[in-house]
Amino acid sequence: MEFAFNEEQEELREMVREFVEKEITPFAAEMDRNNAPMPDLFKKAGDMGLLNVIVPEEYGGPGLDSVTVAMIYEELGKGCAGIATSIAANSLASYPVLLKGTEEQKKTLCDLLNNGGLAAFALTEPGAGSDAGGVATKAVKDGDHYILNGNKIFITNGGLADTYLVFANTRKSGGIRGLTAFVVPRNTPGFSVGKKEDKMGIRPSNTCELILQDVVVPESARVGREGEGFRIAMNTLDSARPFVASVSVGLAQSALDIAAKYAKERRQFGQPIASFQMVQAMIADMAMKVETARLLVYKACWLRDQGKEFAKEAAMSKCYAGDVAMQVTIDAVQVMGGYGYSKEYPVEKKMRDAKIMQIYEGTNQIQRLVIANKILY
Ligand code: COS
């Protein structure tokens, strides 16, 4: 068993760290207030090669393995979980095409990501959240085209993406057997971006509604077969869950680091509060949680990279690391007392950011269902 990154990975990690310290952390509070990323941030992230990390070498990308990608997202999560979410959404949105797309679809999407483009994964709808099979967006076949009608909500990068992976139902009666995936470029007539969400946390991440009104796409925009969409979505979510989890780990680690530093500096009763055992116990518990979450994340990624079964560990990592991010950020605020609760310090934002980690890309209740199903059936 090897618990260390290799030299190449360490170099990459250092590069991402520097990027985070220069371009993300100093602007996190401002982006949080603005409910938007800094205008040139994704351009810089693209130049750094952060937007196409899973693009295979044969399509002009670095073709990084899951362990390395998680390492990158963990570092991004330390700076801002919202920005990390937006960047990781490119991987989420590209899996369906990488898994089941045609050569042409792969080439087009990979070219876009290699050139700093953004993609969005559009599955969720007002009536289809945890029940991913409840998608009501319709795709009606008309000769060699499909006509798409429906609404998507809570779509990460919804207002910024160049292309969208849209799940629609090709069956009149609906149901998971009709779910079908399509690539819809942003400039397609009838496609528009609706309301932008005003969220509790991860505010620098753009989250929007999408409206599809008689959107005509050619048959060649369909990813996989008709009715294959549910399986494609599930496979994609399996692969992306450890990445969400890695963002949670970075988020939690950064909250712990800030709280530990504060505890050493803050003096009460004539001594640093770090000398009090109740504070030490909190710091120790936080550190154990972060470390165990990290181990689960890299185990899930390692299993995937080895071509082994990983869906159970992927769900475990997403669920556990998300819960840990919530608990650790709450405790970081507690260690810092009134200062932790103030917007002058970064942990209150981190606590708000952490809540989504238990909700998006499959709630932690759904993750527990997936884990139990894998064990029991
Ligand atoms: N990989 C491949 N296939 C899968 C799968 C997976 N991880 N999970 C389910 N399937 C297949 C099943 O094998 C089954 O196929 P058959 O009917 O051919 O046997 C089919 O899909 C339906 O499975 P199931 O009956 O388990 O589906 P449910 O409708 O009960 O849904 C959950 C299962 C709840 C796990 C699923 O809907 C889910 O993950 N929901 C959360 C969605 C989500 O993450 N949303 C967040 C928004 S997207 S960012």
TrEMBL record:
Gene3D superfamilies attached to this UniProt entry: Acyl-CoA dehydrogenase/oxidase, N-terminal domain (1.10.540.10), Butyryl-CoA Dehydrogenase, subunit A, domain 2 (2.40.110.10), Butyryl-CoA Dehydrogenase, subunit A, domain 3 (1.20.140.10)
PROSITE patterns: ACYL_COA_DH_1 (PS00072), ACYL_COA_DH_2 (PS00073)
Database matches in Pfam families: Acyl-CoA_dh_1, Acyl-CoA_dh_M, Acyl-CoA_dh_N
Segments forming domain Acyl-CoA dehydrogenase/oxidase N-terminal: 6-109
GO molecular function, one term: flavin adenine dinucleotide binding
Keyword Flavoprotein found: yes
Names of required cofactors: FAD
Keywords, comma-separated and alphabetical: FAD, Flavoprotein, Oxidoreductase
InterPro entries named among the record's database cross-references: Acyl-CoA_DH_CS, Acyl-CoA_Oxase/DH_mid-dom, Acyl-CoA_Oxase/DH_mid-dom_sf, AcylCo_DH-like_C, AcylCo_DH/oxidase_C, AcylCoA_DH/ox_N, AcylCoA_DH/ox_N_sf, AcylCoA_DH/oxidase_NM_dom_sf
EC number assigned by the record: 1.3.99.-
Limits of the Acyl-CoA dehydrogenase/oxidase C-terminal domain: 227-375
Annotated Acyl-CoA oxidase/dehydrogenase middle domain residues: 120-215
SUPFAM superfamilies per record: Acyl-CoA dehydrogenase C-terminal domain-like, Acyl-CoA dehydrogenase NM domain-like
Annotated family: Belongs to the acyl-CoA dehydrogenase family.
PANTHER family found in the cross-reference section: ACYL-COA DEHYDROGENASE, ISOVALERYL-COA DEHYDROGENASE, MITOCHONDRIAL-RELATED
Protein name per the record: Acyl-CoA dehydrogenase
Origin species: bioreactor metagenome
